[in-house]
Amino acid sequence: MTATAADVGHGYTTTGLPHRKIAIWAFIGSECMLFASLISTYLIYKGRSINGPFPHEAWTDPQTHHVYKAILNIPVTSCSTFVLLMSSLAMVLALAAVENRDIPKHTLGDRILGSSKLWLFMTALLGATFLSFQAYEFTSFVHEGLTIRTNLFGSTFFTLTGFHGAHVTAGVLWLLTMLGIDFKRGLGPNDALNVDIMALYWHFVDVVWIAIFTLIYLIK
Amino acid sequence: MSDTHAGHAESHEAHPTWSTYWKVALILTVITVIEVWCYYLPSFVATPYFVPTLLILSALKFVIVVMFYMHLKYDARLYRALFTGPFLVAMATIIVLMFLFGKFAIHLSLLT
Lengths: 220, 112
Hints:
heterodimer, A: 220 residues, mainly alpha, Four Helix Bundle (Hemerythrin (Met), subunit A), 2% strand, disordered N terminus, B: disordered N terminus
């Protein structure tokens, strides 16, 4: 049987799938293209900067004889990567809590795992922590002499990580909005699709960072 | 209408349990630790295996998150197509641009 207009009106396409979820996957597909263009630009210009500071090697300015150390701080970025990975865990736990809201919770562990407010808050907090790490990194880079106009590395690095940071910021705002709704009227199984769509966006931001961390920070 | 909703219900299996999510997080953490550990091994960094190892570990993390956290392993095939299609185009674009700008070089002398 084909879907009726009423079905489509209630949020289901003729495929039997919710159109908003199809839309977010199509959006994520387009975002793949965006980040592929930014990553490829970074990789094309990698190693072609004439002046430092450089990501992995020290550099001495021939005019001022000032020595610039390798700019990337791997320990700090490893911590921020761990934080973002854990935010994805908090996100799936928030979605599971919303989906299973109607299931009775008997133990304290069940109540903790079943608290969508807790996990949404944790996801937003971890996302904000990641942004704090990025703000620290950007600030320290500028203090060490690397800005978006210094060299090709600075231009491509700040553009790529800045775009990613903007996506994380949008995700944190989305999470806080959802948390506000949860506090106001509570999120239940009827809201699972909305939380699922937000979770897909959040995990996509996470997988983009997985690629960035390896390609920019770890590969010398 | 009910058929449509039934179709929706059949379009995906049940999502993983909480314990699966915790195990996935542990695996992702271990892979990240291995990646950073590789970075701090100068003898390994100097070998030709360093970059492929990091790329494989990164791809593994990527696939795990997409399959388990984004539920692509459990959801409808249409979502998989909507993601993998553009993703493959994006990967192809990166690889072609790398060749175009001389980041990858095919050593023809080795073939003759």
